[in-house]
Amino acid sequence: MAQSNKVDFVEVGARLRAHRMGRALSPDDLARRLGISRAALYRAEKGEIAKIEMLTAIADELHVSLPSLLGVGIEYVDNATSFFERMRQTEEGCDQIIGLFSPISYLVTTDGYDVALAEALEEAGDPVQAGEVTRILDILRQRKAQFARRRPLLVSIISDADIARFLSEGLVSRVDLDPAVVERRRRMALREARHISRMLREPDIGVQLGVACEPFPATSFEIVRRGGEAVLAVSPFRLGHNPNIRVGAGLITSAPEALELHRDITRRLWTSALKGHEAAAHVDTLIDRHGIS
After folding, report:
1. Is the dihedral of CA 263, 266, 272, 276 positive or negative?
2. For 197-223, how does the pLDDT look when each residue is reduced to its tens digit (9 = 90+)?
3. How far is CA 207 from CA 130, 131, 262, 291, in A?
4. Among positive and negative, which fits the CA dihedral 42, 139, 9, 150?
5. Phi, then psi, of 291 in degrees rounded to 5
6. Domains of the chain from N-terminus onward
7. What's this model's pTM, rounded to 2 decimal places?
8. With CB atoms 3.0 to 4.6 Å apart as the test, which of 36, 76, 180, 217 could cross-link to 40 if both were Cys?
9. Is residue 163 within 8 Å of residue 212, measured between CB atoms?
């Protein structure tokens, strides 16, 4: 996770797998394109890479730079499937997650949120990309189950403006939806906002929430810590209002400068954020003002 002069080939194998999934290639498909056996590709994805030539060929086939596969500098990810799989990988075995996502970290949303998100992602796409939605939803559910099982410390900072918009419009992906669909999504948003209010009043062990009332960054990001190491994931992909899994370039890095800049953002927002019963009361006010009757 952290920068080092030594290449961690297990991490390289994990990146390889994520980028393969992002290209919608099965292990057999990629092995056939490379002219190697399925077993050889399996070993590569486990980090058993004997020759740099093989890694170069894999990088070319997946349209990803060799430095990105090696984890040198900044790893750029051009599709949501690969990005969320990389997030799942970095969260696996971690000690702490600090996130800024709208309307809240997906990891603590309800099962009802999953249902509405699936509908919103499907209605925003086209039939050709339906398989991509299925793959992304599967990865997201794995992330949530992984978090529930291990329970690392989670610090989630949320924006009151995002909650207000979420309540007013619901989890929708288009402006031309049937009014009955919009009403159903707004009722889901209401249930989710009440869930947030309950978590603020009676927080789960290891979950810390803060409600920011000042301007919020336009880009979501997450800092994941494991031992003395940390990794930053900056996401252009949205799982909240007007979800986006189509366009964007995410980045993942352990560069000290990038980590420190984003730690400064979280420290500032956390210091001024409302917490506990005060935050819950503010969310309740937003519910009264913007929630569907």
Report:
1. negative
2. 999 999 999 999 999 999 888 889 999
3. 33, 33, 20, 25
4. negative
5. -70, 155
6. 1-72 (1.10.260.40), 73-290 (3.30.870.10)
7. 0.85
8. 36
9. no
